[in-house]
Amino acid sequence: MVQVVLVNPQIPPNTGNIARTCAATGTELHLVGPLGFEISDRYLKRAGLDYWPYVKLHYHESLTAFESLRQQRGGRRLGFSVGGSLNYLEFRFQSGDWLLFGSETTGLSPAVLSACDTTLHIPMAQPQVRSLNLSVSVAVGLFEARRQLTYLQ
């Protein structure tokens, strides 16, 4: 099963919306600190509504702590970035992939991107638009991976 990883998310409602998507799909959600908010933040809880009991949530204090778990479980690190080398629609997802997304303000750091097995981008028709909202990007990437792996049936 693919997993979603948010590295240093900053905006509670985005993380809440992503948690709701993960709850609906049974996808594990990994938050890598430092976070730009407290996990108990009311905006985070409000965006996730009453779905928090259904979120398979993991908090990692650092990238090192996250990487330790990822190495134990295995799987590829797929970094989503506006500068990603491959169009996510042309990529073949595998069960066990980790979908990594960076903060809303800076994205994934160069160090994280260089540690990824591959980097993916979501194409946009309007070059003046820098990026999609984080929760939208996660949903787009996650549902394409699930579609390819026939998890939508």
Termini, distance in Å? 14 Å
Tally of helical segments: 5
Helix content: 25-40%
Mean pLDDT: 92
H-E order: EHEHEHEEEHEH
Radius of gyration, whole Å: 14 Å
> Largest beta sheet, briefly?
7 strands, parallel
CATH topology, by name, is Alpha/beta knot
Strand content: 15-25%
Low-confidence stretches: none
Q: Which CATH class?
A: Alpha Beta
Major sheet: arrangement of strands: 3-2-1-6-4-7-5
Instruction: Tally the beta strands.
Output: 7
Form type: globular
CATH architecture: 3-Layer(aba) Sandwich
Structural class: alpha/beta
Counting structural domains, the number is 1
Key words describing this protein structure:
35% helix; globular; Alpha/beta knot; alpha/beta; 153 residues
Structure characterization notes:
Helix 1 (12-25) links the parallel strand 1 and strand 2. The chain has helices at 12-25, 42-48, 63-73, 110-115, 134-148, and strands at residues 3-7, 28-32, 56-60, 77-80, 86-87, 98-101, 118-121. Helix 1 runs parallel beside helix 5. The protein has 153 residues and is an alpha/beta fold. The model has no long low-confidence stretch (mean pLDDT 92). It has a seven-stranded parallel sheet with strand order 3-2-1-6-4-7-5, with helices on both faces. The protein has a single domain, classed as SPOUT methyltransferase, trefoil knot domain (Alpha/beta knot). 35% of the residues lie in helices and 19% in strands.
